[in-house]
Structure formats: C-alpha cells, structure tokens
Design brief:
acireductone dioxygenase (Ni2+-requiring) activity; Jelly Rolls; binds nickel (II) ion; four-stranded antiparallel sheet; cytoplasm; about 180 residues; EC 1.13.11.54; globular; binds 4-(methylsulfanyl)-2-oxobutanoic acid; alpha+beta; five-stranded antiparallel sheet; metal-binding
Length: about 180
C-alpha cells in the first residue's frame, strides 16, 4: 500500500528528503480518501496492455494518456519544470498520475492545511481532485517515469496559491467539510 506522513515543516532543507516528523506521524489511506485522494496499485510492467488499468480508465473516462520521464538529461527545462511542480498550486481538473518507474513525492494539504507527503513507488496510481492544493518533487533518487492521465483533452494549467476564488476550489472545500 501507499505510505504517507505529515511533514516536518520546521526547517526548509532539501525538498527531495523525506521531512518526516520525529516520531513519524503516518497518514492512512482512509484519511487520504477523506480529502478526495484515490489510489490504486497496479502492475507497472504491464502498463502497455493492462486490463486492470483499462478498467479504471473506462470507469473514470481517462481517455488521454502520455508518459513523462523526469530526469536531468532527458526532460527539457528540467530545473525550471521541477521548480514549477514544487510551487503550491491547484488545477481545475483532477490530476491523475501513474508511476511506471522510479519514485516521487506528491504533497497535499490536509483538512487542517498541514502538508501530507505521499511516497509514490512503481505501480502507484493516484488521483488528486480538482481544487486541492498540492505540489510534486522527485526524491533523492532523482528519477521517475510517470503516465499522465486526463479526462478528454489535457489542460496542464496550474494556479499557484492563493487561488481560493475558483468555483472548483470552493466546491472541493465543500466536499471535505461534509465527511
Ligand atoms: C503537477 O501538476 O503537479 C504535475 O504535473 C507534477 C509532475 S507529473 C509526474
Ligand atoms: Ni499539479
């Protein structure tokens, strides 16, 4: 299953290190579900022809997909992109990512506006709901390959915090109030 924890934000340090509290404060899948984050574990070696992935894509209408390799020498404007990914932001659509190789962290805001760090490994597929504040970073292994899924034509536009005036943001907030 997926490992997640509340981050130690008392010092800045390297964004790629785990930033666990001492003692560690784990976050359960249940808690992640309450803030609208869904997770599936798949067999990444089958990703090009995986009936389980197909089923999820059909069920949720994830018609679009591409694959991005985030690595210094293969991704154009690597530093710039990583910097952008780590700015706290939201989207007006769900962000759906499937880690095919390597590792990465997604940080999401808790109900109480704390940072939760989600450790993504090979085979983890995650959905972040439209309107949730989040950010992304590589870990100290500096490499990940991920499938990006989308309902229809992809829109990559990110709105950095503060972006509270969007209807999608307000709708998202309403969904986490009533659980
Ligand atoms: C985003 O919007 O946060 C991203 O696209 C993260 C990088 S994709 C693995
Ligand atoms: Ni994003």
């Amino acid at each position: 299953t997926l490992e997640a924890w509340y981050m130690d934000t008392s010092s800045d340090g390297d964004q790629r290190s785990p930033h666990r509290l001492d003692p560690n404060q784990p976050v359960s899948l249940d808690e992640l579900e309450k803030i609208g984050v869904s997770h599936w574990k798949l067999n990444p070696d089958l990703y090009e022809n995986d009936p389980e992935l197909e089923r999820i894509r059909k069920e949720h209408g994830y018609s679009y997909s591409d694959v991005i390799t985030i690595q210094k020498d293969t991704l154009p404007n690597y530093e710039e992109k990583l910097k952008m990914f780590f700015e706290e932001h939201l989207h007006l659509d769900d962000e759906i990512r499937y880690i095919l190789d390597g590792r990465a962290y997604f940080d999401v805001r808790s109900v109480g506006d704390r940072w939760i760090r989600i450790a993504m490994r090979k085979g983890d597929l995650i959905t972040l709901p439209a309107g949730i504040y989040h950010r992304f970073t590589l870990d100290d292994t500096n490499y990940t390959k991920a499938m990006r899924l989308f309902v229809g034509e992809p829109v990559w536009k990110a709105y950095n915090r503060p972006a509270d005036d969007f209807e999608k943001r307000q709708k998202y907030l309403a969904t986490i109030q009533c659980v």
